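Hi Prof. W.,

I finally got the Transcriptional regulator, TetR family prediction working! I wasn't sure whether to trim anything, so I left the full sequence exactly as given:
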Amino acid sequence: MARTQGSRAEITGPLIRDTARKLFARQGYAAVSMRQIAAEVGVQVGALYAYTPDKQALLADLLRVHMEELLAAWRDDPARPALDRLEAFLRFHIQTSLERPEAVFLSYMELRNLTPDNRSRIAALRRRYEDALEVILIAGEAEGTMTVPDTRLATMALIAMLTGVTNWYREGGRLDQERVVEVYWELVRGAVGA
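And this is what came out:
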């Protein structure tokens, strides 16, 4: 298949990434070939290698960019009460997860397909994000507004719960996003003994 007439690097590069993200999320990383990605994009398979060294690098880059964007977007204000900070984290996590469900799915389900070096780099970024929540829980314990028997375990459980919204939430469903946030906030408050 010939390159689409008029295609340009600033269009083709992001299109390759978006297509790979969608295919990896729908079919799984192992089931998707570079040939399939190229066919979906409308370029020769060899053209992909102008944008990525291989499929592994493409997956690692997708996960890295997702985590870096998440970390760059999250804003915490340690001067605020811990419960306010926790609610802000909850709202942020649910909103960003629902805005990019495919990226979230890859971040949690495709770590197993990364090489050890890539997995280590992505795990370090994930740890920074998890640490942002744990710092809030520790502050809540110190303020006496939260009771958490193990802040690390609570952090992991809360992130798993909040991320789970991407598995079932559908726009136009029984609950709108704001109601989902309200219900999750009640659940999270209970989970941290607030």
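The first helix runs from residue 9 to 27. Does that look reasonable to you?

Thanks,
D.
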